[in-house]
Design brief:
By secondary structure, the protein is α+β, with helices and mostly antiparallel strands. The protein is about 35% helix and about 15% strand. The strands form 2 sheets. Strands 4, 5, 6, 7, 8 and 10 form a 6-stranded mixed β-sheet that branches. The chain has a 4-stranded antiparallel β-sheet with strand order 2-1-3-9.
Length: about 280
């Protein structure tokens, strides 16, 4: 993506440049919202329903149906039907999923601090209140996956605010886990502290990296002010996705995580269930 101006009135050139790079674009009006459907498409009377069963717009030539109107077709972007929208546009938006991207939208300093402690470094884009973290890969979109954080990827749009800084990295499991609800736990007949699947030294991480990861996981659980069940599950999932397959986790590590969860009111049985469900989720 090239550096583009965001001055009002120059949104069309920016949109065309993005589209040429394979990024589906659409105009946004004031308030960072898409243009409403036209009279023929109001209330989706045309049959165009951007949802899981019928993703995508109808054949209306106007920028209808929100994110589903995003396109890389220069003839559509330059069309008379889109001209009025571009003249009134307050910003350019894009469909991250259509560009093979996922945006972690961080709305405040606390959310940014959480991301810097938990998420892998990647390309970042400054926003009015926070930052967008861009990853290569797509996933389901979701709002409020944690305080101050939204996921924008498939069936969603994000404002184009420039190319950002840093090297974009692959979408990690810890981000995917943010929209995963813990499955209904299967209660074991007896609760025991889980042991590592196999012993040995981690072949790709240093001991300091592992120690820092466990400490950050403990902190994440300890600082959870709501949705403790979900936080415990996603934290276990993140730890296992990074270290679970190489055998570097020990009973001492899992005991620390369990202790942090129990200090937040989780029962030993729930801790064991969350750990087992995370293992199942990762196919381990």
């Amino acid at each position: 993506m090239t550096q583009l101006t965001r001055v009002r009135g120059e949104h069309l050139p920016a949109a065309l440049s993005l589209a040429a790079d394979g990024v589906p674009v659409l105009p946004l009006r004031a308030g960072k919202v898409p243009f409403g459907n036209c009279c023929d498409c109001v209330d989706n009377a045309c049959g165009g329903r951007p949802n899981m069963k019928h993703p995508g717009p109808c054949h209306c030539p106007k920028p209808c149906h929100g994110w589903a109107a995003a396109t890389t077709d220069p003839d559509v972007i330059n069309s008379p039907e889109w001209a009025r929208a571009w003249r009134q546009a307050a910003a350019v938006a894009y469909h991250p999923g259509g560009a093979g991207l996922t945006v972690v939208d961080l709305d405040n300093a606390d959310a940014i601090a959480w991301a810097r402690a938990i998420l892998p470094a990647t390309r970042t884009v400054a926003t009015t209140r926070g930052e967008h973290w861009l990853y290569q890969g797509t996933m389901a979109s979701a709002n409020a996956v944690r305080p101050g954080a939204d996921i924008k990827s498939s069936m969603a749009y994000a404002r184009w605010l420039g190319p950002g800084t840093g090297t974009i990295t692959a979408l990690p499991d810890v981000v995917r886990a943010l929209v995963v609800k813990a499955p209904t736990p299967v209660r074991p007949a007896a609760v025991t502290m889980p042991a590592p699947a196999r012993g040995g030294r981690c072949p790709h991480r240093t001991p300091a990296y592992l120690a820092r990861g466990i400490a950050m996981a403990e902190q994440r659980i300890t600082e959870a002010s709501s949705a403790v069940h979900a936080t415990v599950f996603t934290t276990f999932l993140a730890v296992l996705s990074t270290h679970g397959r190489c055998g570097c986790l020990t009973e001492a590590h899992t005991a620390r995580l369990f202790a942090a969860a129990q200090a937040k009111g989780e029962s030993p049985r729930h801790c064991a269930d969350a750990w087992a469900n995370a293992l199942t989720r990762l196919g381990m």
